[in-house]
Amino acid sequence: MKTETTSPPDATRSRRRRKHARAADLRVAALALFAEKGFDATRTEEIAARAGVAKGTLYLYYPSKEMLLQAAVVSPSLAALGKLHSLAGRDGTRAEALHRMLSDIWTHLQDETVGSVLKLAVAEARRFPDIMDVWLHRVMAPVRSLIVELVLQGMDRGEFRKMDADVVAHSLLLPMLVLCFRRSAMDTGAPASRCPDDDFIPLHVGLVLQGLCREPQE
User: Is the pTM higher than 0.85?
Assistant: First the structure.
């Protein structure tokens, strides 16, 4: 009589963790090499070696180098989106929630990995024009939607003046993106600005929120 064997739950979970870890290692290795050498100059053997896996294993996760490129560009920021949702859901005023979220967004955008993404997107823009579109659509669009949602909540609660929520979101996010591109992808070695980015962004966010919030007598 044939007996069926099943893997213990702990063993199954362990295999899943290893599988996710290998995929993450491949994305990290690919992003680093793409940023260092460029897409064309990077060989899949190099990516696999840096990730500590066999070349055949790479193709089990990503059938093409182009698919790995897209995953490497998007994945570092997707993990941060869940944290933003938790920041938005905390108690307090909507202005406080926006301030927490924008501080976290700015911290994330300054991360070295995000810098590599932006540098890669600029370097490969001609051959892969969709790279930046994918990052903006899958990462920044949900962030913008979350900001719009908080702004609308603040208006409904009477905390904020009535304004175009989309324009407010763009006003808050665009300076961050411009500065990140300048830092990570367009650095020419020119002298630093007299106004450091780390001073400018909090001041900018504070001014926008100050203009957004209603005065007590309004």
Answer: no
